[in-house]
Structures are given as structure tokens and as C-alpha cells.
Amino acid sequence: MEHTTSGLAPTPQSWLGASPQRANKRAHRWAEIPNGLSLQFRQEPSLVRFSPDGLILKFASTTYVVTPWPGLEVYYLTVHGQRKPIPALLRPPILTSVNELRQSSNQTQRLAIHDLIRNLPLWIHARLVPMRQRYWLGIETLADMPESLRLLESSPALFAAMSQYAAAGCLNGDQRTALRALLQGRQRELTDWLGFGGAEACCKILRKLSHYDYSYSQWRALARCMRQTEIRKVLQKAPTIPCAIVDFLVIASDTRLFTSRALGQVAAELLKLGPSWIKQRELIDEVLTCGSLMRKYGIAPVPMSSYTDYRRLHSQFSDAVDDVRMTQGPLLVLDDVEPIITPRDLKQEAAEMEHCVGSLHFIMAGLRGTYCFYRMVRPDRATICLERSSGLDSWKVAQIQGQKNSGISDTTMDMIHRAVAAST
Question: What gap in Å lies between CA 126 and CA 114, rounded to an integer?
């Protein structure tokens, strides 16, 4: 089976069944790479060519060679063909250039990097795929610390977290030495050292993650959550932990809208939704958006202690913000069109027009500043909803609802679009 994950090189498995004729062409692939690649290093264009020693990168008058996997060592290449060591600070940007080749839209360039790592075992590739855009970071980590190979085999997520800690520059020489020693010991000691906690449950939770494409700060936030008993108990019972739950815990823990007990209960509600990614995201957006608005308008001045408290305040939210001013959009130069200022006015408009624009979703969007609303009386009776686009003062038509969610005439529709374009 061939993976098609965006940004990843062709899988080594795709070449296992290659015909002998195609295999004989491997030596010519590098020669097919055109000169003048779009890579940039020291603001100079690079040239790439094949060498039995590995990948040759030429930046202006300097030539580097990157040895094949598992070494991935970088050297200067002198005019006499001799290899000399480079300063340690130069290695990361050169390997970054190699990673850009791996993600190039040019298939020949991707094949070149495949040749560089063609000795990479297939099981390693399969465990690195869930790292997504940090796939190459995993390869660099394995090359720098071969001791981490056993960790990748038993717990890919813990390996991904360790890679981010090492790449973030937060470990000095002594700490890297300690990390190498921990990689040869028990995982519980490593998880405790990284901040996830020393319980066996922490190791089991990390093995249940479906994806682990997270930054250093996100891993740190997840570690803080896993140290909370209420959250750890919920995650421990889950057969798998989808990325939506991890994203929620990472974001919500920084907002301080909920206590750890409430976060655990929300995570349990998300798990009850099953594998439905859409339903999980809808609940997450509702909880985070409504929770932040509750804090902003004093409905929940302190962190909510349970999911029950959140649902109770959520049911009162719509009435509590009735007289709060929503975002006002551009002034539409149209007769018989007036802005809708408060949620009370919006709900009254929805009741009169018998459509859905007065629901809590639209009220929250108006309070957040992403939507603004207008009441049109003539030539057609309608409710206009504008959505804020990329610019702060740029708006576009999101929807126009007539009576009972009906449409309006094309003439009126064109008139509204012209007025919005002229006002922004």
C-alpha cells in the first residue's frame, strides 16, 4: 500500500515491486535533476548532482555532500574531492534545504531524496508518517540519536515529543547526555523527565494518539494536562485518542476557562461522539467560543468547574447578552436597510422572518466580530448577513435570507452585492 500523505516523499514500498528495467535507471535519476533549483541557502541558488558519496549540494563556490541514511552527515567537498567537517551551526540549514527538495513538486527532485534515504526500513517510514510535516525531523533525530530507534518502535508519539524537545533548543549538552541515557532505560523515566508524568498510564496514553504532528509548545501543554488526574483517567479509558481531543486540551488549557475536572468531562463528551470528526469539531468550537464570550461578558468570571456548569451557563447565555452591542459592519448606501445592533434585535428579526439567523451560532459570530447583520424592508424583505474577510475592514456577503429562509430576486441580490463592494 502506497501512502499519499501531502508533503511526504514517495514511500520506499512503492519501489519494492519495481521492474529490473526501472531499477537499472536508478543511477541516472540524479543526472536528470535540472540545474538551477529553486532552493535558497545564504540567498544563493544551489545545484544538485549525483555522486556515489551521496547528495551533492553546490551553493555558489561551496559544495557540500550529505551522506546517505543512516548517517546523514554533512561535509565540505574540496576541489580535490576530499571531505572536510563543517561547523555544527551549518548542518541544520543544509538539511532544511534537503527537506525542501523532499517536498518539491518536481518528482525528479523527490526521487533524489528517496535515493538518499532508500535504505530507510519501511517500518520506520510507517511510524514517521503520522508526524506529517515533521516527518523529516524524525529522520534527523534518528540520525543524531540512534538510541531513539527503540523508542520509535514502541511509542512513536513519545518519540515525536522527544524530537520536538531536542529540536527546540531547550536542552543543553548535559541534558542531551541525560536524554541519551534515558532512551536506553524505561519509558516511565523518560515521560517523567519530559514532563508528562511518571505513571504507566502516561506511557499508555501516548501510545493511543492517532496523530502526533505537534509543536514543542503543544507537547508542553498536553504534558500539563496529562499530569491532571481527572484528565488522565478519561484518556486512559479511550481506545484511541483522536487529534481533535488533543487540540481541544492544548487550546483550552491555555485559556483557563475550565478547571481540570471540567476539561476531563468535556473530553469524555467528545469521546462519546465516536469517530465523527465533524461533530467533535462542532462541539469544540461551541465550547471554546461560548466559553470565551462568557468570560468576556462576565457570565463566567472564574473557570467553570464542570461540564454541567458550562451547559447551565450556556442555556442562559443567549438571554444574558441580549443588550450587548454586536459588531457593526460597513454603512450600506441603500434605502430601507438598517443595521441590527443587539442579539435581542437579531432574535426579533429571526422570529418575524421565521428563519435561522437568530440562533446562538449567529449571535456568537456577531459578538466575536466575524458577522454583522442588516434588516432590509424594500424592495424585498430580507435579512442580510455579512462576513468579515481577510482585512479588518473588508466584508463579503455570507448569506441573504428571505421569509422562511426563502430567496430574493436577482435584481435585489445584485444591488446588495454592489453596495457591499462599494462600502468596503
Answer: 15
